[in-house]
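Checked the freezer inventory, then went back to the computational side. Two predictions to log before the end of the day. The first one is the construct we discussed on Monday; recording sequence and tokens without edits.
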Amino acid sequence: MSAKPAHFAIPELCNTPAIALLVLFSQLLVVVLLFAGGEISWVRFGLMSLFVQWVALLSAAGLCALRKPLAGLPVGLGAGIMFCLVLVVTAGVGLITEMLLDRGPGAVLRILGQLIIAGIITGLVLRYFYVQQRLRLQEQAELQSRIQALQSRIRPHFLFNSMNIIASLIATDPDTAEGVVEDLSELFRASLNEAGNQVPLAEELNLCERYLRIEGLRLGDRLQLDLQVPGPLDGVQIPLLTLQPLLENAIYHGIQPLPEGGTIEMKVHVGDEDVAVDIANPIPREDTRTSRSEGNRMALQNIRSRLNVLYGSRASLHTRDEGLRFVTELRFPKMPETGKGG
């Protein structure tokens, strides 16, 4: 597979923090130029400040207007347009300055010097943008790889159990066996979906229902469910395959070790800014819990890692032992719907 061609990209310059930094760096440049040679005076400092700030702000305004069109161009062409834009703005401000101040002979040489300085600084800025873009693309590629690795993990025992269920039902209940095949194929299709994909919460809950149907056939009356999900869920997004692994974890570590089984409780709360999901399962006896505790921690850590990659500190996954119940608390920001499905 050939690599995708790189496109030119510049950071967002049309916001208050970016403009403040631009003004600050421009003023630092004025100080450097003031002490680099020539007369040191407040008048010269003021004139240089006006010149440099006008060039910087007008160039930033032009780049803001052209940011989206430039983003779709090859790196060389986009950089060339940006370079020419800054030089045109510098020349224009230089001509206006010469006309207003009427400084006489040497105007061409002064404007030429201004263009050389502007060209050098713009070249350095372009190089900085290019390096930042390459680093950002590399980080995104690494994050996508981590998300894909964490998202695609399905316990082998679940696959084997599902295949055994299908085999046992083919002769006695082919319709149910066909339903298990369909549910299993949907779960595997989701696990192979695009890394980090955001899907509607209703779609993720549908995957959970498919998984619980399969486990219900295997565990029978040992598995009881108490699902409290508000409706409607329009516009609520969630990372694909977030809830299903937590339910699988609860069944594997909470229900399966108990001969009498138990109840899995899941409560979903959608707030104005975030989504909360609480999943509770019974706690097995100490003698059956010890051999599974390490696997439990590893599964939860995998989910935490995936949430950290997608949301950073805005998401959390905590657990608590209430004596008779083990509770998993998931919190993540409420994302606007993008229309991108699984």
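The second is the one RB wanted added to the comparison set:
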Amino acid sequence: MPGTSDSSISMRALLAGARLKQASLVELVSQLVRYESPSDDKAAVDACVALAATRARRLGGRVKLYRQHGFGNVLEARFGPRKPVARENPVKPILLLGHLDTVWPLGTLKTMPCRLSGGRLWGPGTLDMKAGAAMALTALEMLAEARLLRREIVLLLTGEEEIGSPVSRPVIEALARTCAAVYVLEPAQGLACKTARKGIGNWRIGVHGVAAHAGVDFEKGANAIRELARVVETVSAWTDLKRGLTVSVGVAGGGAKSNVIPAEAWAEVDVRIARSADGPRIERKFAALEAADSRCALTVSGGIGRPPMVRSRGAVRLYHKARALARELGFTLDEAATGGASDGNFTAALGIPTLDGMGAVGEGAHARHESVFVEHLAPRTALLAGMMVG
């Protein structure tokens, strides 16, 4: 494949090129994994981002770092031509979107070492999603060597996706608006890519009651935990599985001692929505919550943090293209929807065609058995490269 000048290239040639680079791809994933990068440790995330930036520069990428206060830096690397191919009909760039932060605390490698075993690469962050970042860099390297980078490709790797992208969202959205399509480097759903994701909301509900001695002054107390129980029943009843709407109270607490009427209680609520219209509707319902016991007061905070990634015509077009290329590579590519969210939710909500799950195939994201199936790395990297050529 190196030195190819023909404007078209067979997927078989891309697959052969990816197989030649498989060993170096695995090594790059391993290097990234060994730079542990929990979202809440800026220095650790920055070190991992710096490693990716060094690799991008080595490949000829034009690197820009967005230095974030309190969160990991964001890496933007541009490859290919700097200007549109034709002024009268400019070719917009393609955005490759991923993140380098993980859910794993520093020191996890001591009990979850990065290792090759049983056809898998194991370790914290392998699947979610350092393999996806390494696949993107490898695909770009392949296309550069073959002189097939005829449109600009923007690689964006963030450092706080796992905690909701509080600072990188504006960067993501600004870049996405300039691009023709977005390929999200998150793991595949089984073997499938993702054309739809649910949106996510988070709320915290506080209940403020009246403390009293449970034996001497029972009637003078206003039990915050009892009031919280009523609220939990109320919000849980908003779940509508037919609409893809779920309301889940995941964490709760309150009280101090069993012989004291509790004056304080609280709960944290996870909300998932499949329809865009349900976001404002559920926000209004939370805002309208009231205590049944007039002696109690509620404080409610939160909202929809990520809009849903609704299956759109643009996403379906990208999927059909990917499915056809996958067929040339010798495998079947299905599509899937998932209840989890990604930064692709932001770009899809802007109306930019977005195809998610373009990263690695594996098991155990956020779990002790997190791992990547090595046999799928080359075909999926070739697929990613093929999607950038057209």
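For RB: The radius of gyration is 24 Å. The CA atoms of residues 174 and 286 lie 30 Å apart. Let me know if you want it refolded.
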